[in-house]
Structures are given as structure tokens and as C-alpha cells.
Amino acid sequence: MALPRQRSSTWLGARPSRHQAARPGAAQAASAGGGGALFRLGSRAPLSRPRRREQRTAYLFLSPWLLGLLAFWIVPIVASFLLSFTDWSLLFKPHWVGASNYRSMASDQDFWHSIRVTFKYIVLSVPLYMITGLLLSLVLNLKMRGMNVFRTFLFIPSVLSGVAVAILWVSLLNPDVGPVNQVLRAIGIGHPPRWLQDPAWAIPSVVLMGLWGIGGGAIIYLAGLQNIAVQLYEAASLDGAGPWQRFRWVTFPMLTPTLLFVLLTSLISAFQVFDTAYILSGSQGASGTSLNFYLLNMWTEAFTNQRFGYASALAWVMILFAAVVILAIFRTASRWVYYEYDPEKER
Amino acid sequence: MGQVDAISTAGAGLAASDSPTAVALEKRGRARQTGKWRPRRVLFLAAMYILLLTLSAFILLPASWMLTAALKPDLQPVFTIPTEWYPAHFWAWTNFGRVLLGHLSFLRYTLNTVIIVFFNIMGILISCSVVAFAFARLRFRGSKPLFYLVIVTMLIPWQALMVPQFIMFFKIGWYGTYLPLIVPSFGGNAFFIFLIRQYMRTIPRELDDAARVDGLNSWQIYWRIILPLSIPVLTVCAVFTFISSWNDLLGPIIYLDKQQTFTLSVALANLVTRAGTPWNLLMAANLLSMIPCILVFFFAQKKLIGGIASVGLKG
User: Fold this and answer.
1) Is pLDDT at B11 greater than 80 in this prediction?
2) Rounded distance, CA B213 to CA B229, Å?
3) Cα B168 to chain center, whole Å?
4) Is A305 on the interface with B (CB under 8 A)?
5) What is the ipTM of this complex?
6) What distances in angstroms separate CA A287 from CA A277, A282, A283, A329, B99, one per listed residue?
7) Region B250-264 average pLDDT
8) Which pLDDT score, from 0 to 100, does residue B84 have?
9) If pLDDT is split at 50, 70 and 90, which confidence band does A63 have?
10) Which residue of A has its CA nearest to B210?
């Protein structure tokens, strides 16, 4: 991570003396001010004065993020942990209820329903998106005239908001008069699915809607494909490998880090599905509850039912899930270690 | 939906055709073909063009249907049999004006969104560039663990912390204002810090050394040397911030309580979950909300290519 510094030590040593020559009093005052002691962490060897100054500057530069980290991450994480053991509703004083929030999850129908919805979505969407995204990226990676135009078209849906896309597809998937079912009827499917209005088809509908933005996923693979050294393909061709063999024995193994990364992040992001679920459940009435995704359920508990303590407990389940996934990422990081030692990067 | 992540690599994908790898592959392909049109190659190319055209139709037809619906006058049904996939008969452009200025007052929501987006971009550019500079160019104790912390916060979904954050902002009286939607961006964003740091690392270190010999301090090096050279990656960050903050629903829906402060996403969500909105106006509003992101994407494409190509996905 940290690059070896290429600065010559000669001028590093020379600089303070130059300063001292110019403004001896000022340099004296700075060192006497004791600012450097602030960052003398642990019992490690004290730093030289220019290093100390550099370190002070560095922490000044870091301060916006450090403050943000404290205010928007560390304090909320601690607060949410404590809150998850209370029954706070904002209006009344919080009471310490021990682990009862976590216990009541076990018998909470909505919670288990949201878990089922989220995992059903994961099972249906992750393999489908990964395979179609990979195939699409292979096509978009071909050298063909006009490819840039195709790429632009295919990427556009991924810059659109979940709200706008959901609104569009609610109308397209209208079971009676919607364009999608008209197309299906025209090609001979007499009774096309009732999509979002049918509880059994609601999640598959969301998954199919997501295919519209598959270009966004394909981009990640496309970037991965660009990182594969051409020599590997040359060597494979010399050994007589055909297109399938080149994919199977060069492209695919070289792409496994990307695939792994996408797999893990899409697990986390399934717990972040909100916009689509919010729009679709709101506009579909009763059958919309079949789209009670994890985050939507948590949002409802907090901001509709005012159960902030319980919602915090739900948030901690989410954090633990994310933590498991993050650990898996770091554990498997050795598999993509060649990312970090790319000779071209080190230059 | 991880849209920002997806888009962030868009540039990398777009840059693909120009990468040395792709060029070399193409040369190799040509050499093998000895410049002749081989029938199998022609068939393959034709199949690929058909596939790509089909895929593009899959993207464009819904959008075109939406435009058709948005241009229908009030008394014309939006859903017709057979489906009208492109505007042919009705051109009620005034629908867009009615959405913006009429009782739906989408101009108001657009301006609200613009305000939030503007301050988010400012916050992200200022904070992330400064922090990334420290990680990329300065030596300090704890840089490694702190950088790991950046990566961890990049992976933890902030939605998990929305409840305590909400309570915090509620307690200090920021509920119902734009502050909870704006101020956090001034605290930096892990993903953008990571992106900018990766870019700044590629700027030759000799520049810093020369500048220090000339007597510039770290702030001056940041402001006069590194920042101007980082404009490509900063543009990329600005574009991503624009898109994600323009499209954000969860934040505004939690913190905004008054109709006149709503953003486009919240207003649209209200339109669709509330029965009785005419379809033509709903589609016009929807289309209007999409246009800025599409425009930004089009105009920034080149910058995105330059910015991301040099950063890549690598650690």
C-alpha cells in the first residue's frame, strides 16, 4: 500500500537548518510549542523535526475525514449498539430492555419475511446478473465498428435513479395493458404472468427489471477483462487453444478476482435495496408486501413504527452480515494479490 | 443498487477499446486473417451486430415508450393496443411545462435537488481531495491502518447507521433541513478518497521534490501542483456525486418533512404511490428527472474515460 519514498535524505536534513538560518526564533518556538508530541504515538522512536512537521500536516489534511469518521461512523455505530438494547421511540425516554429486541426478532413475522424476500432476491439475481453481465462484457469487449455507441446505450440505465426506473417498469409491466404483456401475447403466450401484482412473480419481476441496468454490472467485468495481459492469449493461441479454451483457461481464471469481488459486494447490496422496493410496494397495494426487502422493513420499523431500538437491532444484523462478507473479502484477498503487485502500477 | 460503483468503472470500460491490450489483440487478429474477409468471421460479426442491436432496442424501446406516453394529451390513453413504441401522433410538449410549472411544481423540486447536489459536490471535492492528498503524498504514522479503515467504511452500508444518524441530526435540530443531506459530504467519502488517492499516486513524486526545493510547503504543493493535475479524477468524482445525490431517495425521505423542500426523487415517489396522477404527466415528470443524469453522463464520458483509465480497479 505505502509506496517507498523516493526523497533524498540530504535535503530533508538540510531543510530545517535552512529555516533555522532564516528564522531561528520561529523554528525554536515551533519545537517548544510541543505540537509534535501530539503525534508521538506509543513508545516508538521519536521522529525528526521535518518528519514531525509532515506528520502534523498530514493529520491536518486528514481532519475532515477523521471528524466525519467520528461523527458519522464511530458515534453512530456505538449509539446504534446501545440503542439496540433500548425501546426508544424518540418521544419517550429510552428504557433499557436488554436483549429483548434481538429475542423478539425470532418471532417477528415481518423480519423473517424480509429475510426471505432478500435471500430469494439474492438467489435469483446474483447468478443471473453475474452470468449475463459477464457475457455482455465479453461482447462489449469485441473490436467492432460502432462499439462505443452500443456501450453508451447499454450504460445509460445504470446512471438513472432507482425511483425513475421503477416508475417506468411499473407501467411497462402492467399486467392488463402494459407493453411487456402485449408483446408476450403477440408472440403467443396467452396468459402472461401478472408480474408485480402476483406475489409469486413480484421478486422475479424486480430481478428482470434489474436486467435493464445490466450494462452497469458489465462495466466492472469489462475493466477486469482489460487487465488481462495479451501475452497470455498469445501463449494460449500458440498452444493451439480455440476461443472457448482461451476463455476457459485464460479469461475466466484471470477474471475470478473480479467475479469474487462482485459476488461479495452484491451480497451486501441486496441488503441495501430500497428505492425499487419502496416505489413498488407503495404503488402495488397489498401485493407490494411481497417486496418487503430487508432495508425497507428496517426503514418501516424505524420511521413508520417509531421503534428506533428495534430498528437498531435490525441494523446490527445487517452490520454483522456485512462484516462477515467483508471478512470474506479480506480473507480471500490473497487470491487477488497480483492486483497490488502489477509492475506497471509501480513504475 | 450500487450504481455509483457500477458507473465508477464505466470509464474503465469505455477506455477499453484504446488500451494497449485491445490494440495488440486487434493487430494479432488482423495478422491472422491476412486482411481477407473470412466467411466465419463475417457470420460472427453479423451475429454480434444483431445481438447488440437487440440489446440496444431492449434499452431504448422502454425509454421511447416513456417519451410517447409523456407526449400524450390528457384524453388519449397512455396504454394502447397495440403498444405505441415511439411518438407518432401526439406531441403535447406542453406536458413538460405543466409538470414543471403547474400544480405539480416540479421546478421547485428540481431547484431543491440542484441545491443539495451542488453542496454535495463541493463537500466531496474539498474533503476527499485533501484527505486523498495526505494518503497519497504525505508520510505519517498510522497511515496504513487508517487506509484500511477507509476501505472498511467503503464496504459497510451507511444504511445500517441511518437510525442513530437520524436521531443525532434530530437532536441537534437539523431534521427538516438540508443540513443532514449536505454536511456529511464534507466529512469525505471513502470511495472517492480511495479513487483520488489512487490517481494522485500516479503523479510523479519528483514534482513534489522540486516544489519543496523551491520552498513550497505541503499546502502549496496540494493547491498549486497536485490539485490541478488531479482534475480528471476530480471530474469523475463530481459526476458520480452528481448522479448518486441527484438520484438519492432514502436520505431526503428520512430528513425532509415539508412538501416545498422535497427533492425530485421524493416528489416522484409520492406521485406514483398516490393514486390519481395522470400517466402522461407521471411519465413526463419521470423523463424530466432522468434528463440531467443522462446529459451529465454524455458530456462527461470523455472525462470519465481519462479519469478512470488511469485509476482502474486496482488496489
Assistant:
1) no
2) 19
3) 28
4) no
5) 0.82
6) 12, 10, 9, 36, 29
7) 94
8) 84
9) very high
10) A7
pLDDT band at A139 (very low <50, low <70, confident <90, very high): very high
The mean per-residue pLDDT over the stretch A250-274 comes to 84
Q: H or E stretch including B208?
A: helix B206-213
Residue A228 region by backbone torsions, left for phi larger than 0, else alpha for psi between -120 and 50, else beta: beta
Half-sphere exposure of A126 (CA within 13 A, CB side): 19
**Start-end of H helices in A98-251:** 100-106, 109-140, 147-155, 162-172, 179-186, 199-211, 214-226, 230-238, 243-246
Residue B108 has pLDDT above 50, yes or no: yes
pLDDT at B156: 82
Nearest to A160 among B140, B212, B290 (CB): B290
**Cβ contact A57–B218 (<8 Å):** yes
Select from A59, A222, A274 the Cβ nearest to the Cβ of B13: A222
- Tell me how close the Cα of A21 comes to any Cα of chain B, in angstroms: 14
Distance from C-alpha of A145 to C-alpha of A162, rounded to nearest angstrom: 32
> Which residues of B are less than 8 Å from A210 in CB distance?
1
Q: Do B20 and A64 touch (CB under 8 A)?
A: no
Q: How many of the other CB atoms lie within 10 Å of CB of B93?
A: 10
Q: How close B230 comes to chain A (CA, Å)?
A: 16
Percent of chain A with pLDDT over 90: 29
Cβ separation of B160 and A279 shorter than 8 Å?
Answer: no
pLDDT value at B150 more than 70: yes
The mean per-residue pLDDT over the stretch A168-182 comes to 89
d(CA B237, CA B243): 10
B6 pLDDT band, cuts 50/70/90, is: very low
Residues of A in contact with B154 (CB under 8 A): none
The predicted structure's pLDDT at residue B175 = 94
In chain B, what residues touch A55 (CB-CB under 8 Å)?
138-141
The verdict on a CB contact (< 8 Å) between A139 and B52 is yes
Q: Is A345 on the interface with B (CB under 8 A)?
A: yes
Could you say which residues from 86 to 125 on chain B have a Cβ atom under 8 Å away from some Cβ of chain A? none
Query: Quick one: pLDDT at residue B63?
Result: 92
User: Which A residues, 244 through 303, put their C-beta within 8 Å of a C-beta on chain B?
Assistant: 258, 265-266, 268-269, 271-276, 278-279, 282-283, 295, 298-299, 302-303
Residues 6+ apart with CB under 8 A from A117: A203, A290, A291, A292, A293, A294
Classify B312 in phi/psi space as left (phi over 0), alpha (psi -120 to 50) or beta: left
